Amino acid sequence: MNQIEELRKEIDAVDSEILRQLNKRIELVFKIRDCKRQGNLPVEDITREEDIISNLELDKLDESFVRDIYKTIFDHSKSKQTQ
Q1: Banded pLDDT at 23 (limits 50, 70, 90)
Q2: Which domain holds residue 40?
Q3: Which percentage of the chain shows pLDDT scores above 90?
Q4: Is residue 17 predicted with pLDDT exceeding 80?
Q5: Contact 32, 66 (CB under 8 A)
Q6: Integer Cα distance of 24 and 51 in angstroms
Q7: Helix, strand counts (H, E) of the chain
Q8: How far is 78 from 15, CA to CA, in rounded Å?
Q9: CATH code assigned at 46
Q10: The total number of structural domains that make up the chain
């Protein structure tokens, strides 16, 4: 197996882990949704969103890239909370 194929297999494993973690995150979002409904709290919490982003370690990633990813994650999470 050549080096590119080996590296691609590693990327595939990382992609699978990303999806596994996103699914786990949504499970937690459902639990938060239930708590918010019981407490009559709003779905959106901009302060929390900014706290999450500001606490991330970007390492080699551009901040704008990470913000775009998290905007998508937050939007999806909020849509799941309103279902």
Answers
A1: very high
A2: 3-81
A3: 96
A4: yes
A5: no
A6: 20
A7: 3, 0
A8: 23
A9: 1.20.59.10
A10: 1
Query: Taking a C-beta distance cutoff of 8 angstroms, is the pair 81, 29 a contact?
Result: yes
User: Tell me, what amino acid is at 11?
Assistant: I
Q: Does the structure show a pLDDT above 90 at 31?
A: yes
Closest alpha carbon to 74 in 25, 14, 15: 25
Long-range contacts of 26-30 (CB under 8 A, 24+ apart): 26/76, 26/77, 26/80, 29/77, 29/80, 29/81, 30/80
Residue 10 and residue 16 in contact, taking contact as beta carbons nearer than 8 Å: no
Q: Stretch 8-22: mean pLDDT, rounded?
A: 98
pLDDT at 83 (0 to 100): 84
State the CB neighbour count (10 A cutoff) for residue 37.
11
DSSP state of 61: S
Instruction: For residues 70-83, give the mean pLDDT.
Output: 95
